[in-house]
Amino acid sequence: MPPDAAKLGRLTSAEIDTLRQWIGAGAQYQAHWALLPIEPVEVPPAVTSLPVGIEPHNAIDGIVFAGLAARKLSPQPEADRATLIAA
Fold first, then answer.
1. Which of 28, 38, 46, 61 could form a disulfide linkage to 56, CB 3.0–4.6 angstroms apart?
2. Three-state secondary structure call for residue 33
3. What b/e string do you get for 19-47 counting C-beta neighbours within 10 Å, with b at 16 or more?
4. Contact criterion met (CB below 8 Å) for 53 and 79
5. Are 50 and 65 in contact (CB under 8 A)?
6. Residue (of 54, 53, 58, 84) closest to 69 by Cα position
7. Percentage of residues of the chain with pLDDT beyond 70
């Protein structure tokens, strides 16, 4: 809950009534994706048709490159250090 320093006060009568109606109606709740348990992801097989100089460095790269290949897209060349700093 928020700390007392937040000074948010109490719920209004209208907010309390809304909660009571929601509970009375069965309190249907849909879990938010961020609160669901993490499920393992199968890493796609290595993409062999990457342009020269483009290599996957980790499993995330493999997933991204597989997604690009499925859409018949090519990855952009890796940005140089100066470009990354300026971004």
1. 61
2. helix
3. eeeeeeeeeeeeeeeeeeeeeeeeeeeeb
4. no
5. yes
6. 54
7. 92
